């Protein structure tokens, strides 16, 4: 995790009640580009207080590779000190909560876009007459509607059937190894190590998928070979094959020594 504390002399309504200025815009772009979390509360006491210059919210606490669940408490304390800046008190936990809900994410390519657009259009039509008195409530409601639309129109995952004839114990072990490697990759927070493990995981995942495809093809070919061997139509194929010798073909004769050309003639002589 990365902690950054500083007097940035930047203003924004995100971490204080003042309107954003030029420095605030630059700092906000930096925060977004580097995926930092702003711990400050915009409704807190001012972090800077000077009798001659007034009050301001310019001291920030930024966090990376962490979440709000790790922050137990945070506040600005205006107790007396020998600086124009007030104390910033916080309590932080490095333990990861096991009860935190798993975040849902979807790939845009996995959405059924036609149904998604239709559902979003119907939702927006119903919300046109909503009053905008409470913007936070309106945004929260629309956000939940989008999440529900994504969940309803996601592509269903195709699970492997228990009776798949191409599945074998070797692929079972390979799948377990890939899943363990994926969990290891997801648990790493250090950027360089995470990148290294990610590259290794992607390479192993590609080899695993390649092995699955090769196993499917080989199993399917073996299955086709068995069908060709036991199929009775194979004999008719051999009759018209150029490699078959004409000596294998024998003309059927009746009791008088006459040649028989139809099945009816053959049955009448029995």
Could you characterize what this model shows?
InterPro entries: Endo/exonu/phosph_ase_sf, Endo/exonuclease/phosphatase. A hairpin with a 3-residue loop joins strand 3 (48-50) and strand 4. This protein has three domains: 2-92, Endonuclease/exonuclease/phosphatase (Deoxyribonuclease I, Chain A, 4-Layer Sandwich), CATH 3.60.10; 108-153; 169-244. It has helices spanning 22-33, 113-126, 135-152, 169-187, 191-230, 233-240, 263-268; strands at residues 2-7, 37-38, 48-50, 54-56, 59-64, 71-77, 87-92. The strands form three sheets. It has a three-stranded antiparallel sheet with strand order 1-5-2, with no helix packed on it. 43% of the residues lie in helices and 12% in strands. The protein has 270 residues and is of the alpha+beta class. Helix 4 packs antiparallel against helix 5. Residues 242-247 have low confidence and may be disordered.
Number of strands: 7
According to CATH, the homologous superfamily of the largest domain is Endonuclease/exonuclease/phosphatase
**Looking at CATH, which topology of the largest domain would you report?**
Deoxyribonuclease I, Chain A
Q: Proportion of β residues?
A: 5-15%
Cα-to-Cα separation, first versus last residue: 94 Å
Gist of the model:
InterPro entries: Endo/exonu/phosph_ase_sf, Endo/exonuclease/phosphatase. With 270 residues, the protein is of the alpha+beta class. The protein has seven helices and seven strands; from the N terminus they run βαββββββαααααα.
């Amino acid at each position: 995790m990365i902690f950054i504390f500083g007097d940035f002399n930047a203003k924004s309504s995100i971490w204080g009640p003042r309107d954003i200025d030029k420095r605030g815009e630059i700092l906000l772009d930096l925060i977004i580009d580097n995926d930092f979390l702003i711990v400050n509360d915009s409704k807190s006491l001012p972090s800077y207080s000077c009798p001659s210059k007034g009050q301001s919210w310019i001291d920030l606490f930024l966090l990376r590779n962490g979440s709000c669940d790790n922050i137990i408490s945070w506040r600005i304390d205006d107790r007396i000190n020998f600086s124009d800046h007030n104390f910033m008190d916080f309590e932080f936990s490095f333990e990861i909560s096991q009860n935190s809900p798993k975040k849902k994410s979807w790939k845009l390519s996995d959405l059924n876009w036609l149904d998604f657009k239709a559902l979003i259009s119907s939702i927006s039509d119903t919300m046109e007459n909503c009053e905008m008195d409470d913007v936070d409530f309106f945004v929260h409601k629309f956000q939940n509607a989008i999440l529900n639309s994504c969940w309803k129109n996601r592509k269903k995952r195709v699970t492997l059937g228990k009776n798949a004839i191409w599945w074998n114990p070797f692929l079972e072990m390979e799948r377990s190894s890939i899943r363990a490697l994926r969990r290891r990759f997801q648990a790493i927070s250090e950027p360089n190590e995470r990148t290294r493990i990610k590259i290794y995981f992607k390479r192993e995942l590609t080899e695993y998928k390649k092995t699955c495809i090769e196993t499917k093809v080989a199993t399917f070919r073996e299955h086709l070979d068995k069908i060709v061997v036991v199929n009775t139509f194979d004999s008719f194929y051999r009759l018209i094959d150029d490699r078959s010798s004409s000596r294998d073909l024998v003309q059927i004769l009746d009791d008088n020594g006459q040649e028989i050309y139809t099945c009816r003639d053959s049955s009448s002589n029995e």
